[in-house]
Amino acid sequence: MPAQPSHNPPQPGSAALRADARENRDRILRAAREAYALHGIDVPISAIARRAGVGVATLYRRFPTRASLITEAFAEQLAECAGVLDEALEDPDPWRAFCSVFTKVSAMQAADRGFTHAFLARFPDDASYAGERDRAEEGLALLVRRAKEAGALRPDFDVSDVVLALLANNGVANGAQAESAAASRRLVGYLLESFRARPDVKQLPPPARLELDRLGGAG
Amino acid sequence: MPAQPSHNPPQPGSAALRADARENRDRILRAAREAYALHGIDVPISAIARRAGVGVATLYRRFPTRASLITEAFAEQLAECAGVLDEALEDPDPWRAFCSVFTKVSAMQAADRGFTHAFLARFPDDASYAGERDRAEEGLALLVRRAKEAGALRPDFDVSDVVLALLANNGVANGAQAESAAASRRLVGYLLESFRARPDVKQLPPPARLELDRLGGAG
DNA sequence: GGGTAAGTGGAGGGGTTTCTCCGTTTAGCT
DNA sequence: AGCTAAACGGAGAAACCCCTCCACTTACCC
Asked: What residues contact residue A26 under an 8 Å CB cut-off, 6+ apart?
């Protein structure tokens, strides 16, 4: 390693930063996550800077645009989602796997006001996440197919119904204020019950063409 | 009628207005409804004034605050909701009545982006709607009780689950952009199926304490 | 310790929004 | 037709927001 005088390990996103700058960067991300969880993504940049104890200029040097701060702040939770999916894909019981993903992601939505907006609406903007998104969609489709083949998930369930359910849960999570966790749990209970395969299936309205991108955020 | 020189009948909300003022008031309300339906309640006042062909000052004279314009603009749809409920209360089949209310209100939500926000969030602000709200809650409770007693609605259904379902549908309506109508129909289909009484009821998470007021809008 | 590039914070430009002030216009009664 | 109170519209004040510029400070290598 001849041309690398730096001796702090180059971590992704904060490589080759001076020690104080790195510290500030971390505090900004922490402050952003806290603020977004409490008040949603509409929190002004200045409020995040104040909470982090830095000036706005410092924030803007690390995160040149508002959207970049948002995507970075939620990268961790996005990874957690991917982990939930991976874990579920290893579960031998397809229905339990399906329930697990839906339940856990819904709980994350309910716990963090800004999560869904960042998760759904900011996805297409940043090309670096395109691969991860595709992988998630593939995994989800696999999960759904397995659950159907096992006879646990109703046959007319569409992959887009996952998005539908997440949007519905988002509406509850953002609308129910203090009760959002309990409300979300109950909605998930209802929805999982109707997703379950039954002998007397009734005709459903056709699925909507929902994509993970092209979704207008709410909240 | 000695002390009433006016000969235009005093209509609610626009009593004793000069002819041109009344005309403008109506055009403002029409413009507001159109704009809110298309773009949600975040549309700036100036855009509504422009669409109505009046100046901002004219708008502000009739509707002293932004919120007052919103409540007035949605008064009609609110009345439509009340009509839907009244109609359902006269239906001899309680389950059909229940489905009808949920389906129709959900369709209204999906058709009009700003509807829910105005409907839920603006309710408590204006005391004049308190009576109407109480009446709606009573009617809804009656509808739910009847449907349960008829053995059509599952026994552990809570009245707050109506709010839960409307919040969920709102999330879909606001998030699914162009597909919101189809998406909403499908969600309603799923939810109604899980609300229906069944022999093999599973334990649900407990209901959340949701009230029609105290709801943070998502919109 | 000293030099220097990297980092910092606050002031403010440019944009949007809600709401107000005030000089001008007009409906409607006589 | 003339008068007057009612209604009008546009400019702009006040409060936000996102983002940038620039004079000052500080970490880090020698």
From this structure: A14
pLDDT tens per residue across span A70-125: 989 998 888 999 999 999 999 999 999 999 999 999 999 999 988 887 776 555 55
d(CA A72, CA A47): 17
Share of chain B above pLDDT 90, in %: 65
Looking at CA atoms only, how far is residue B129 from chain A in angstroms? Answer: 21
H helix and E strand count, chain B: 9, 0
Q: Binning pLDDT at 50, 70 and 90, where does residue A216 land?
A: low
Helices and strands per DSSP (H, E), number in chain A: 9, 0
What structural domains and CATH numbers belong to chain B?
17-64 (1.10.10.60), 71-195 (1.10.357)
State the Cα–Cα distance between residues A154 and A149, nearest whole angstrom.
Answer: 10
Which positions in strand C are less than 7 Å from the protein's CB atoms? 6-12, 16-22, 26-29
The distance of A211 to chain B (nearest Cα, Å) reads 9
- Distance, CA of B186 to CA of A194 (rounded, Å): 12
**Residue B128 confidence (pLDDT):** 65
3-class SS of residue B152: coil
What pLDDT, on the 0 to 100 scale, is given for residue B159?
A: 95
Mind listing the pLDDT tens digit for each residue in B138-149? Answer: 999 999 999 999
